[in-house]
Every structure is written in structure tokens, then in C-alpha cells.
Amino acid sequence: MLARKGLLPDGFLLTRLAEDQNQPNRSRSRSQRARFITKTGSCNVAHKNIREQGRFLQDVFTTMVDLKWQHSLLIFTSAFLCSWMLFAMIWWLMAFAHGDLEPRDPEGEPGPVPCVTAIHSFTSAFLFSIEVQVTIGFGGRMVTEECPLAITVLIIQNILGLIINAVMLGCVFMKTAQANRRAETLIFSRHAVIAPRNGRPTFMFRLGDLRKSMIISATVQLQVIRRTVTAEGEVIPVCQLDIQVENPLRSNGIFLVSPLIISHTMERGSPLYELSAQSLASEDLEIIVVLEGVVETTGITMQARTSYTPEEILWGRRFVSIITEEDGRYCVDYSKFGNTVPVRMPSLSAKELDQTRGVQEGGSEVQPQGWGLVRAGRGGFRRGGRTCDSSAPQPWYAQSEKPAEREAEQKGQKKTVQLEVIGRQIEEDGLEDMSD
Asked: N or C: which end of the chain has fewer CB within 10 A?
């Protein structure tokens, strides 16, 4: 459709078709997974067994806007026809009660003034009802001052017709100016990729706007929907976790003047921290992308949505560049919008990579230079015949303390007696007692 309207070149669609054929379809080997958000942005949720249906009638306008076009047109056509038939019946009964339907001799004396002129049957009453409500006024039929009730009915029908017209115009305007209509020209890459960026595994997808009119205050939000089990054993079928977005502007706000690659670093604290190439195929998760902003031309808040399942996430690939500089301006080649190229990347998760790096960093500690360390006393090491503190080991080239400083330290210390001398004295005293 976009190619027929001239918004996208034909090569873009051909490239996307070739891309889908080249990519392995991992979903064909197993049953298709249910997803909450389809690729077009609609919610894939069916509401069943709703007993309080009357709640929808309390907000009739929103209900009318949410209906499909064929249903809305059917309701409005039925409303107009029913109102015309109802007031046609009222006008016919009024003419019948007043005696306006009795045949008169055109050559005879004129009869009483009718309530509505030129009403002779139900068909003429129906035509008069249409003329009153649509304000056509052909001039052949009109209300006279003979019947005050006819004037009251005329006022009521005009008011009711204005209400029906206002509701119909409001619904048509809201349905044509809905926020999701602007999302038709916002495109997301069919696949997301996981590739290294700045040494870290990064989840990425591409976002673009086909219109020249911009999206003001555009923000991107990412959420992971997965099935989780709490510590108490409670099963949460839909657990929503926010993902921090790291776009080129380092915030959730983006300047969508050209296609951007929105990224998320898979680091500690990320819901994708334990995701690896092997576990990706068996993971039961869905990554939802929500783009919100204000339409520049209309000022209406819009929202575009899409999602990525594990089958649509490519491991070890990155997007190709599509922006070039030609004749002093930047040009975007949308035929390569979803193209990816393989890159070298380990199949380990970000958590396993961090653990591997931690072991390597911990095992590569530099040993102190000099001779080997020998345990020497309490809380120290002996290196080269000297003892140094274990908390702050001295280098091998440190100079020995001066004798004068040692003597000054020894003068302030108390005299110590070795244990060997005390033991020898005790043994001598014991021998003397035995000899006595």
C-alpha cells in the first residue's frame, strides 16, 4: 500500500521479502506463540464473559468511536431512518385528527386551514418529515398557525435532528483523526538484533518516520512481558518489567528526524541480563515497544506500538547504515531499513560474560617483584631477610632502617624476657628440690 502511494520505493518491499526468505523461520518448527501486541500495534487480547455490558452504554460516544466503520455507518443510517419514520407517523396522525386527509372538491368552497399544507397521505408526511429534519424546504409543504401542536412537534424534530447530526460528525471526525492513523507512517524494523556495542551485549531495533512532519516530544518505552513464579509459588502469567532505553541522546526522548537505532545495554539489573543465544529460542518473553508523541500538524497525542518475540530477535547481527551525505544534505535509503549483517559475538549471556571477565581479572593479579615471600612471624612476610607488613608490603628496593632509629625505639620499650630462659630456671629449681 505504501509503495502504491509513493511513500516507499518498490525496492524496499522487494528487499523485505528477500530478507524474510533468507532469515530462518524458527517458529515453523513449533506451534505459534501467543503475543500481546501484534506487529501492527493492535492488542491481541480477547475479553470474554463480561456480564456488565451496560457499562459500555454509559460512555456511548467512546463506544461509537471504537466501533468499525461499517457498524458506525449502519447505526447512523438507522438513526436517521427511524427518526424520519417516527415524525412522519406523528405528522400523518396530526393531519388525520385535524381532518386534513379528507378529499375536497377543488371547485367547491375551501375547507378549514390544515395544520400542514399539501399532506394527503403517509408518503407526503414522510417527505415533509425529511424536509423538516434536513432543512431542505422545497416550498410545497409548510406548517401553518392553525395547530400549536404542529409548531411544538416542528421544534422537537429540529432539535433531535441537530443532536443526531452533531453526534455523527463528532464520531466521524474522531475516527478519522485517531492517534493510530499517524502511526501508519511510523515503521519499525521487522527484527530486533543483539550485538556487542562498546564491549557490552546490546539489544537494538530500528525506528523511522516516513513523513516530513515531525513527532514533537517523542519518547520510546520498552517493556518485557514474561511468565514468572514468585518465591511463594504464585504464578504470574503477565509480568511487566521496564527496560532502560539508551538511544543516541541518552534519554527516553528522541529527535526523530531520521531513522534511529534504539538500544538497551544488557547489564546487571536488566531483565535480559541472563539471556544467551541458546536460551533465546526457549525463552517465553515478549519485548513491547511504545512510541508516544504529539503530531506536529494537528497537535494530537499519538502512540505507535510493536513487539518482538524470541523468533524475531537475531543474535550476533547488527543493522547496516542507511544514511549518506549527498549534495550537502543527508539521504536515507529505506530499501536497507531492515537489513542486517553478522558480527562476531560469543553465545554467552551478559551475566556469564561478566563472570568470565571477573575470573580472568581476579587471576591476573601482578605478583610483587623481588624474592619469594616467606611467612615470617605474625602479620608479616620475610623478603630478602627483612620483615614487612602484610597490609602494606615494602618493595624489595626499600632501604633498611637506620641503627640510630632502632636504638631510639628500643629505649622507649620495656625489657622482654624470653620463654626459654624462664623454662630453664624452673627446671633448675626443680632439680635442686629433688636433691635436697
From this structure: C
